[in-house]
Design brief:
It comes from Lactiplantibacillus plantarum (strain ATCC BAA-793 / NCIMB 8826 / WCFS1) (Lactobacillus plantarum). By secondary structure, this protein is α+β, with helices and mostly antiparallel strands. The chain is 23% helix and 35% strand.
Length: 104
């Protein structure tokens, strides 16, 4: 079975298999937040900001004939700030903390 290991900045690893399902979380861009924090703006952040976050998926990891799972994983990392797997939805990984992807 084709697998890929994702290495994170803190030394943790995550092994994914072909046909595993992953979910992406896209957070609201920083520039959508008000620059001045009056009480009115703070209420806006409190109530509007979570609605701008998106959870999309599940996405199935597909095999590339030469590159294995790397294209599927890099597409996920490029498009989403955070991600999690169907196997463990309680653990969320930060895309920015990925150091290396090894397909084997």
């Amino acid at each position: 079975m084709l697998t890929a290991t994702i290495h994170f900045l803190d030394g943790e690893t995550l092994t994914l298999n072909v046909h595993d399902f992953v979910w992406g979380i896209r957070t609201a861009p920083i520039n959508d937040r008000p620059k001045k924090f009056s009480k009115k703006n703070w209420e806006k952040i409190t109530y509007d900001f979570p609605n701008k976050d998106e959870i999309n998926g599940p996405f199935e990891l597909n095999e590339h004939i030469k590159l294995g799972l790397v294209p599927s994983i890099t597409k996920l990392l490029n498009n989403y700030t955070f991600f999690f797997t169907d196997d463990d939805p309680g653990t969320v990984f930060a895309s920015s903390k990925v150091v290396k992807i090894v397909s084997h």
